[in-house]
Amino acid sequence: MQPIVLTRKCLVILMACLVLGGFFSTVQAQSRLSDKDVEHLMSNLHSDVQSFRGPFNSALNKSAIRKTSQESDAKHLAKQLESQTGSMLDTFKHKQKADDAFKTVLDTAQHLDGIVQQLGPQSAAAAPWARVQSAMNALAQSFGVTTPFGQQTAPAYSAPGH
């Protein structure tokens, strides 16, 4: 009689584990973004980076590094970020993948973040950069990475059907 009771308990525990496992996988699947949503986030990021360049260049023109190679390098970095976000968006539109491109964008953004921080919170670049950071953080959640801006993110993005 004892082996039957033990077998029933094991069976009940196994069934409970299977039910809970199915529940948690459903919750995780619901938190993933669709390809279209990821594409929109990338488009928003690219647009925010484009809007950032003008105020950033203006802030550099008023900074201590104006008319130096550092100013030129910083402006080039902002232009590079704009190009990288555009390329990342194009890659995602065609391949539904952009993990490597996003890592490159994050690296460039981290360098720019240091420059924006040196310009200070009162600079013309601060508010547009905050929008870029916000867009970057939202997109980072899709890829399951931590941004250089210190926000922990959610589980990795998996394209539906891939």
What does this protein look like?
The protein is mostly helical and 162 residues long. The protein is 76% helix and 0% strand. The protein is built from five helices and no strands. The N and C termini lie far apart (49 Å). The C terminus is likely disordered.
* Element order: H for helix, E for strand: HHHHH
Silhouette: elongated
Provide the gyration radius in Å.
23 Å
Overall mean pLDDT stands at 83
Number of helices: 5
Helix content: over 70%
Low-confidence stretches: 23-30, 151-162
Structure class = mainly alpha
Could you tell me the number of beta strands? Answer: 0
Labels describing this entry:
162 residues; mainly alpha; 5 helices; elongated
Write a brief structural summary.
By secondary structure, the protein is an all-alpha fold.
